[in-house]
Structures are given as structure tokens and as C-alpha cells.
UniProtKB/TrEMBL annotation:
Biological classification of the source: Bacteria, Bacillati, Bacillota, Clostridia, Thermoanaerobacterales
Pfam families given in the database record: cNMP_binding
SUPFAM superfamilies: cAMP-binding domain-like (SSF51206)
Xref: InterPro entries: cNMP-bd_dom, cNMP-bd_dom_sf, RmlC-like_jellyroll
Protein name (record): Cyclic nucleotide-binding domain-containing protein
All residue ranges annotated as the Cyclic nucleotide-binding domain in the record: 22-139
Length: 145
């Protein structure tokens, strides 16, 4: 069970949680979420992984990158507190391997929810759908602009 301080931080970083229509899902979210702490340089996801959970960065910074054919790291984007990884979401939605590497750039606190709960939220909760759509839209705009 996570403590009240962390519950408060998660609710503040991810406002969709407070707007869930089904209040039982709020309790389920806090019961189901698995909290992990990563140190600088630890990998959260590696290219080729099949994602079984959705990543929610609570605090810290995660760098998402690809390796060039020459072995150089090419940063795609960074994740900060209150964000989820669009490539993680895309991999789950398409049932394809994760196409990059996600690594802690400093100490990071991350919450993970299983795909089954993600699907339940996505298909029943408009506030969660909006959070996911905003995430995809923001990343897409960052690439183009």
C-alpha cells in the first residue's frame, strides 16, 4: 500500500485520476499501481521489450532514445513528472515491441499499471482518454514544430 503523501502527489501530477467517473476506479488505481524507483542510468524499458504495463512518471526525468546504426544514442524525448510515454502506449495499443530505450536520467519514481486496467480506464473513462490523447498530441506537435 502506498502512503498518503504519495497518493496526494500522484493525484496532483495526474489530474485525470480526480476526474474518474467511477470512484471505485480511483481506489483500484491506487491499489493496483506498482511504484518503482530507478537510479540514474537504470533502464525502464528496452528496445524490443513487450510492454505489460503503462508507465506514469511521478517525478524525475526519463530519457527515451534510439541507437543509430553506428551505435550513437539519439534522444527522441524526455518524460517528466505527470507524463506517460507515448511509445509505451503505442506499443500496447498495437501489441508490438517497444521501439526505443527509456532510461532514468536522474533518480525517478515511476508508477506502473497493468494493460488490463489501462484498457478498462481507456474505454470507460473520458478523463483518462483525454489524458492519453493529449499525450499523443503533445508529442506529435513537438516533433513537427
Amino acid at each position: 500500500m502506498i502512503d498518503d503523501g504519495l497518493i496526494h502527489e500522484i493525484k496532483n501530477k495526474f489530474p485525470f485520476i480526480k476526474n474518474l467517473k467511477d470512484k471505485n476506479k480511483l481506489d483500484n488505481f491506487m491499489r493496483i499501481i506498482k511504484i518503482i524507483k530507478l537510479k540514474n542510468g537504470e533502464k525502464l524499458l528496452e528496445e524490443g521489450d513487450y510492454c505489460t504495463d503503462i508507465v506514469f512518471v511521478i517525478n524525475g526525468v526519463v530519457r527515451v532514445y534510439k541507437l543509430s546504426p553506428e551505435g550513437k544514442e539519439i534522444t527522441l524525448y524526455r518524460l517528466y513528472g505527470g507524463e506517460t510515454c507515448v511509445l509505451n502506449v503505442a506499443s500496447i495499443m498495437s501489441n508490438t515491441p517497444y521501439p526505443a530505450t527509456a532510461e532514468a536520467e536522474q533518480e525517478v519514481l515511476v508508477g506502473l499499471i497493468p494493460v488490463s486496467f489501462y484498457n478498462d480506464l481507456f474505454f470507460t473513462e473520458p478523463s483518462f482518454q483525454q489524458f492519453i490523447f493529449n499525450t499523443v498530441s503533445t508529442r506529435f506537435q513537438e516533433v513537427i514544430l
